[in-house]
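Intended use. Records like the one below are meant for learning the mapping from a protein sequence to its folded structure. Do not use them to infer anything beyond what is encoded.
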Amino acid sequence: MDRSNFAIDVPDSLLARAQSGELRAFEQIYRLFERPVYTLALRLLNDADAAREILHDAMLKLFQRLDQFRGDAPFWGWLRQIALNEALMRLRKDRRIEFDAQVDEVETDAPPPWVHADGLVLEQALGRLPALTRSVLWLYHVEGYSHPEIADALGKSVSFSKSQVARGTARLRGFLDGTPESKPCLIANPQPS
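Structure written out for the chain above:
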């Protein structure tokens, strides 16, 4: 199942040309994935400038490692992992993440809070969440990562991922309903897109 906007088929001939060093072919690949990489970084970092930096860093890393791609998995999945790793390293470096080891697993059958939300209101509400919580929500609900995959990417436990999804969903629902939790949410330079 293709789980994200990264699921773009790259013709083998274009990939082969890029792997042989043809800059025009690499530019075509860059243009195909420019928006998905930027969007992923923006959702995880909530900072347009940082997202542009991640886009450039991820594409530079792709260019440097393109000859290492063997085709064992879809090319888009390989690139998505490069972009995700770059964004997560940035989150760790910026130390904007609240690593909270508490586990508050709350299971609910209620639809996600964004199902009926206005786009701008949703962007603003997401911007109020801590960077790590927003990242886990994005990876889980939009990119389709499982809790074990998120835990592995963050170097945390599966329970931590579940906790972040449960608490983040509850906080987001509160922001959208106009009844946010009383705890303040601290992130650097929140900018709705």
